[in-house]
Specification:
The protein is an alpha/beta fold. It has nine helices and four strands. It is globular, with a radius of gyration of 16 Å.
């Protein structure tokens, strides 16, 4: 099966940032054990663009192609059911974004970064320490456990605060630096702390 993931990220009409987004996610997926059977990754820019690109791909996909949408949940998920065949990802997107599940699309074709990409980053303290150095304020970070119940603004604000003394070129910001960090994360650490990341990896295992 040929899998293609349509990812929220990379900025609209920014080719360089989209390349960096694809590279970061590809590096993370490779480390999760998919070398030699990698999915294709498409950086789509904003979340609406990602959903629209996904819907187009669903219509045009061939029998041996499986397309997946990967976007921020933006808000905590009300269910703890993270089995790949759970409908809660689509239910959440319908409630929050008014996105209807396209006809014929399976439950596991909606994958969520809960509540945002920065949640993945904050879950891996070793990677953060390696990247940001001794000036990283670990005490300012949220606890690793139950990170997916934290509102995205809280996660993003805490991450910025914890890295504020790391230097002008090392303080956390969205964009190029965030995608570089994604590529450095340890998927085993993320699986240990983030049930919806674990669902994402289990879904890839089923289709690759």
């Amino acid at each position: 099966m040929n899998v293609k993931i349509y990812i929220e990220g990379g900025g609209d009409n920014n080719k360089l940032l989209q390349i960096q987004c694809r590279t970061g996610f590809r590096q993370l997926i490779e480390k999760a054990g998919f070398i030699g059977r990698m999915p294709a990754t498409v950086a789509c820019g904003g979340r609406e663009s990602a959903f629209n690109d996904f819907k187009t791909a669903v219509v045009n996909s061939k029998e041996d192609e499986y397309v997946i949408l990967l976007v921020d949940s933006e808000e905590p998920i009300s269910s703890s059911d993270v089995m790949p065949d759970s409908n809660y990802a689509w239910d959440h997107l319908l409630t929050r974004d008014k996105w209807e599940r396209p006809h014929g699309v399976s439950a596991d074709q909606a994958q969520l970064m809960v509540t945002c990409m920065e949640t993945w980053i904050m879950a891996d303290r070793k990677a953060m320490s390696d990247i940001f150095g001794a000036q990283l304020q670990m005490s300012a970070l949220l606890p690793e456990n139950n990170l997916e119940i934290r509102p995205r603004h809280e996660v993003q604000d805490k991450l910025a605060h914890a890295t504020r003394d790391c230097g002008k070129d090392r303080t956390y910001t969205k964009g190029k630096r965030s995608f570089m960090i994604i590529g450095k994360l340890n998927p085993e650490t993320l699986k240990a702390h983030l049930p919806y990341f674990r669902r994402f990896i289990e879904t890839l295992e089923q289709h690759l």
